[in-house]
Amino acid sequence: MARIPVVGGNWKMNTARSEAQDLLRDVRARLDGIAGVEVIVFPPAPWIADAADMLCSSGLRVGVQNVYWEPKGAFTGEISPVMIGATATDVLVGHSERRHVFGETDAETNRKLRAVLDAALRPTLAIGELREEAEGGQTEAVLRRQLLGAFEGFEALPDNLIVAYEPVWAIGTGLAATADDAQERCALVRRILAERFNHSSADACRVQYGGSVNAENAAGYAACPDVDGVLVGGASLNGASFEAICRAFVA
Ligand code: PEP
Predict the structure, then answer these.
(1) Which of 165, 213, 236, 238 best tests ligand 1's pocket when mutated (most atoms within 8 Å of CB)?
(2) Which of 2, 99, 194, 219 is the most buried (most CB within 10 A)?
(3) In three state form, how does the secondary structure of the chain look?
(4) pLDDT tens column, 104-118
(5) pLDDT at 202
(6) Quick check: is 95 catalytic?
(7) Domain, as residue range, for 162
(8) Does some domain include residue 123?
(9) Mean pLDDT throughout 152-177?
């Protein structure tokens, strides 16, 4: 089953407005109309409207890095998926910084995932093990727990959902997983999805690798049969690097 690779650029809490506009202009100039790979830019929430304006009709997608699960109400500081739907198409759910810096649980990830899907947005569900979990041989158990928790109560695997396998020890550290390890873990994610749902939906689901991906190592991941793209943090803040990563996935 052919899966179109997808590359996400997670800017995290970086860029002043003028820097964001410069980067959006640069990304658009470099990737406008790119075929054979889907590209999603996840800028900080205050720049989402700028991103939507500046990337409109480019084929590049705009996403947000986090949402709350309620559609509206007395939730000071939160952003609802319904609001996001006015400007963006994609949402990151369960990023490791949400889980480990802000203490987001699997149950909260489940609520966010449901809310994102209810708002007809497309989720990128991020999962991954901590260094001590990897060293303790718990990677499979952690991925299984995170996936089963995120999909608690789901009858089917949503057909537009992307899973990003991001080992926490590789994020922002420069210690990228080898291509072989990324392949093995992305295949494991697919096996867990097949057990939880069925083989055909697991085969159709795109599974990304994330963690210190850069212009130099991207081609190694692109060559892996079960790695359907990458989620990029630091390197997405540089237009040339982000372009090289995206182009590495064009067959
Ligand atoms: C991320 O933010 O999801 C990420 C993978 O960051 P980095 O590429 O900087 O490791």
Answers:
(1) 213
(2) 99
(3) CCCCCEEEEECCCCCCHHHHHHHHHHHHHHHCCCCCCEEEEECCHHHHHHHHHHHCCCCCEEEECCCCCCCCCCCCCCCCHHHHCCCCCEEEECCHHHHHCCCCCHHHHHHHHHHHHHCCCEEEEEECCCHHHHHCCCHHHHHHHHHHHHCCCCCCCCCCCEEEECCHHHCCCCCCCCHHHHHHHHHHHHHHHHHHCCHHHHHHCEEEEECCCCCCCHHHHHCCCCCCCEEECHHHHCHHHHHHHHHHCCC
(4) 999 999 999 999 999
(5) 98
(6) yes
(7) 6-248
(8) yes
(9) 97
Residue 49 lies inside a defined structural domain of this protein: yes
Question: Which of 12, 98, 163, 168 to mutate to test ligand 1, by most ligand atoms within 8 A of the CB atom?
Answer: 12
pLDDT, one tens digit per residue, over 11-55 is 999 999 999 999 999 999 999 999 999 999 999 999 999 999 999
In this structure, the residue with its CA closest to atom 5 of ligand 1 is 211
Residue bearing the bigger pLDDT, 251 or 185: 185
User: Looking at residues 90-113, what average pLDDT do you find?
Assistant: 97
Banded pLDDT at 192 (limits 50, 70, 90)? very high
Does the CB atom of residue 10 touch ligand 1 within 6 A? yes
**Percent share of the chain, pLDDT over 90:** 98
Indicate whether 219 belongs to any domain. yes
Q: Look up 184 and say whether it is catalytic.
A: no
Give a yes or no: residue 83 inside a domain.
yes
Ligand 1 centroid to Cα of residue 42, in Å, is 12
Q: What CATH number does the domain containing 17 carry?
A: 3.20.20.70
pTM: 0.97
